[in-house]
């Protein structure tokens, strides 16, 4: 397939992106970056961790997305007493027939919202891990495939840490993106007030796309061209998180561990999705820069010195982006 042919197919196939954005905009005010990142997760078949204080429309955004895609949706409120069977299901014994039958859990939906994922204990988090990575659930001696598309959108509150179970680094690495959800601007908040301060605010979206369209777009994303110089740039960025002394001496005192090879792969995937959403058949360095924060934010571990000085992973990533030579 030539670049011109791919460009034409992208133009024809990306129409649902704009339709979904417009439909979500009917119930969601602002949060354009959040909507874009949700669509990147869909295009890359990757899971997303949303971090922000309560009330920033994280749940509303996911419900609006599922309604726009004619996809099934399930929401879990994670609590310390949640059991793995509450998510994935269990085996039910029928005495009359003297056999066990599977009772599939609510995780068998297209979009899963794991609300406050860090409030559930490790056993529940690990049960979710197989579903996220393998796209299947094992009950008894059989494995059951999850529907396509399957996307886990997990939220956590960055402020209230009492009674929480911090996600281990190995599980954090399974998320394609970690997105910080911020407060709306004053103008956006005024629009929220005008729209939502009624007894019956509009929360519903109509179907404007199908899972089949998402699947077709994923195939095109995989064919988007990445030049060798862009690939080297991605590797240089990841290497800078592991060997910071090579790019900037102060970073060596702030980074305890850098991104894994999964970070390299996911940065390339996310950059391709970003190019697709912008209607291009090729990746630019700006696509890589635009996605670097969300891809690397949860993959860099800080030293105690960095935490004591109040240095964030975002500040470190921004410094790396400013130091690594752009092709």
**Count of folded domains:** 2
Rg from Cα: 21 Å
Number of strands: 11
The neighbouring-strand order within the major sheet is 2-5-8-1-9
Number of helices: 14
Which fold does the CATH topology of the largest domain refer to?
Rossmann fold
CATH uppermost class of the largest domain: Alpha Beta
Quick gist of this model?
The chain is α/β, with parallel strands linked by helices and 327 residues long. The protein contains 14 helices and 11 strands. It has 2 domains: 31-194, Rossmann fold, CATH 3.40.50; 223-323, Magnesium chelatase subunit I, C-Terminal domain (Helicase, Ruva Protein, domain 3, Orthogonal Bundle), CATH 1.10.8.
What characteristics describe this protein?
327 residues, alpha/beta, Rossmann fold, Helicase, Ruva Protein, domain 3, two-stranded antiparallel sheet, 14 helices, 16% strand
